[in-house]
Specification:
This protein is an alpha/beta fold. The protein has one domain: 3-Layer(aba) Sandwich (Rossmann fold), CATH 3.40.50. 45% of the residues lie in helices and 18% in strands. It contains 8 helices and 7 strands; from the N terminus they run H-H-H-E-E-H-E-E-H-E-H-E-H-H-E. The radius of gyration is 18 Å and the shape is globular. The chain starts with a helix and ends with a strand.
Length: 273
């Protein structure tokens, strides 16, 4: 079962008008626990960086929800390998009058380098899709200003990809919830060591999606996606489902973000040049 086809179907539905796309971004921010962690990390960084305009790279920008979330004064570039995503996001930037400060470029992160350009690089659920991760980390390092920060959200090796196969104790013929990942996840030591080898002097890591956060993810994302894969009928049932489960999910998300998790299926990583 794959996650991306459902994302694209929903994206098409919400892309009919700018206000619908903004609503889509809002719903993603509410539903996705990683968005909660990214918002917290962004606030902390912005408090340190100050009110001056920042130069930002959203590496693996996808639908663009994180690219468009920065202040209007900031200069933001989104990079993605999918040409249709780039065209779509640039078109949306024009529709809402942000094309002067927000732009999208087609690019392969294993090749993308703009030396000493960015104050912060954001990489949200991207690195688990890239085999040559250390090459990308090196490109990120080169592309940052001195003192710039890299902010990563990625699955951990504690089950973050929810992946198993016939050779790893899974049920025969049953694949993981997310089939597009090239690795099951990073350990804290593994990703920290790779970033230091790339040149980063200071690295901070913390778990996300701890016990309560993982339950919230199952209720708010995994089960709904599984239902939508089964039948389109669930597009009509899900609004009622979310009315019931979302209050509990929001509480669990807040617990996950505001407390230090001993273990979790996700990682939030900060690294400074």
């Amino acid at each position: 079962m794959q996650y991306d086809p459902i994302k694209f179907k929903l994206g098409k539905v919400f892309n009919r008008a700018p206000w619908m796309r903004k609503l889509f971004y809002f719903l993603l921010d509410v539903l996705l626990l990683r968005s909660w962690h990214i918002r917290r990390a962004k606030r902390e960084w912005m408090n340190e960086f100050g009110k001056k305009a920042a130069t930002i790279l959203d590496a693996g920008s996808g639908f663009g929800q994180y690219t468009f979330s920065w202040r209007k004064q900031d200069d933001v570039t989104g990079v993605d390998v999918k040409a249709e995503q780039i065209e779509d996001c640039n078109g949306f930037a024009q529709k809402i009058g942000r094309e002067d400060k927000v732009r999208f470029e087609e690019g392969d992160l294993t090749q993308y380098v703009k030396e000493d350009t960015y104050d912060i690089i954001l990489s949200v659920d991207v690195m688990e899709h890239i085999e040559e991760d250390e090459k990308v980390f090196g490109n990120f390092y080169k592309s940052l200003h001195k003192g710039g920060m890299l902010l990563i959200s990625t699955p951990s090796d504690k089950g973050g990809s929810d992946a198993h196969d016939d050779h790893e104790g899974g049920e025969p013929g049953v694949h993981g919830f997310i089939d597009e990942h090239v690795r099951d996840g990073y350990s804290i030591d593994d990703i920290a060591e790779k970033l230091r080898r790339a040149g980063f002097e200071e690295v901070q890591t913390r778990y996300s999606y701890g016990t309560w956060g993982h339950i919230s993810w199952v209720l708010s994302m995994k089960w709904p996606i599984m239902m939508l894969n089964l039948s389109a009928v669930f597009y009509f049932i899900l609004p009622i489902y979310y009315l019931i489960v979302m209050p509990f999910c929001l509480i669990m998300n807040q617990v996950d973000v505001s407390s230090l998790q001993k273990e979790g299926t996700g990682l939030i990583v900060k690294a400074w040049k």
